[in-house]
Design goal:
- It comes from Acidithrix ferrooxidans.
- Keywords: ATP-binding, Cell membrane, Hydrolase, Membrane, Nucleotide-binding, Translocase, Transport.
- One of its GO terms (molecular function) is ATP hydrolysis activity.
- One of its GO terms (cellular component) is ATP-binding cassette (ABC) transporter complex, substrate-binding subunit-containing.
- The radius of gyration is 18 Å and the shape is globular.
- The relative contact order is 0.19.
- By secondary structure, the chain is of the alpha/beta class.
- 30% of the residues lie in helices and 27% in strands.
- Strand 1 and strand 2 form a beta hairpin.
- It is built from six helices and ten strands.
- The structure holds adenosine-5'-diphosphate (2 copies).
- One adenosine-5'-diphosphate (ADP) binds next to helix 1.
């Protein structure tokens, strides 16, 4: 079944040129979509529109069968049931690593002990089982990114949006975390939309790749069906 549907969405910032031009696509339940394109091709505008941080000018966005945005309506981000992973982690500096992850479970109405147990389990899965008591500033960049990933994944089987989460990390770590992201996201049953300008990252992660050029979706399909000119 379809988890996310974009129907001909468009957006311009200055009225001159469309940042996103009539983009339509579908992502099925449990599918991992990567949007690939150079800087300025419209990736983050699409991601922010799905998140509800940005308003679309026209078209429609449906998440799990519910319209969240159209030309005339706009549901706020917190009502869309999604979580996001950014390149700058956006961890809460005044909370321990464990609390950062556990806090994401607050809206699930589980008691604090259960939250702590689930958070601890998820931290262990990203290799940070012994770092729960630390504060984010005491961790390396790669470790902080894993905390952000754990926070997005804990108790979440909805839609997860990834905004170039690995672009600030060194090549080695990028490759290792790439595998973790793919594995953990699939295990959790979540549906993912991941944006990047890195071709090898896109092809390593994706069930489906969408290629953007100047705000238009120029190709979409299984990685083996995508052709990129050199
Ligand atoms: P990225 O390539 O990672 O999307 P950008 O450099 O395009 O990063 O954008 C960084 C920030 O600057 C974003 O928050 C974006 O909204 C904003 N931005 C990008 N282009 C413009 C622009 N032409 N005018 C104003 N803000 C912009
Ligand atoms: P990408 O994520 O692929 O780098 P963006 O969605 O950030 O692309 O940008 C698409 C286009 O919209 C670019 O031309 C960019 O300069 C412009 N843009 C993005 N954010 C803003 C903004 N806040 N204000 C004005 N123009 C923007």
């Amino acid at each position: 079944s379809v988890a996310l549907e974009l129907s001909s969405i468009s957006k311009s910032y200055d009225g001159r040129r469309d940042a996103v031009k009539s983009v339509s696509l579908e992502v099925n339940h449990g599918e991992f979509l990567v949007l690939l394109g150079p800087s300025g091709s419209g990736k983050s505008t699409i991601l922010r529109s799905i998140a509800g941080i940005e308003r679309i000018a026209s078209g429609r966005i449906d998440i799990f069968g519910k319209t969240v945005a159209s030309t005339t309506m706009h549901t706020p981000p917190e009502a869309r049931g999604i979580s996001m992973v950014f390149q700058d982690y956006a961890l809460w500096p005044h909370m321990s690593v464990l609390d950062n992850v556990a806090f994401a479970l607050k809206r699930n109405k589980v008691d604090s002990k259960t939250r702590a147990i689930k958070a601890q389990e998820t931290l262990s899965r990203v290799g940070l089982g012994d770092k729960g008591a630390r504060f984010p500033s005491e961790l390396s960049g790669g470790e902080q990114q894993r905390v952000a990933l754990a926070r997005a994944l804990v108790g979440h089987s909805g839609l997860i949006l990834f905004d170039e989460p690995l672009s600030n990390l060194d090549a080695d770590l990028r490759e290792r975390l790439r595998i973790e992201i793919a594995t953990l996201t699939r295990e959790s049953g979540a549906t993912a939309v991941y944006i990047t300008h890195d071709q090898s990252e896109a092809f390593a992660l994706a069930d489906k790749v969408g290629v953007l050029s100047r705000g238009e979706l120029v190709q979409i399909g299984a990685p083996e069906d995508i052709y990129l000119s050199p």
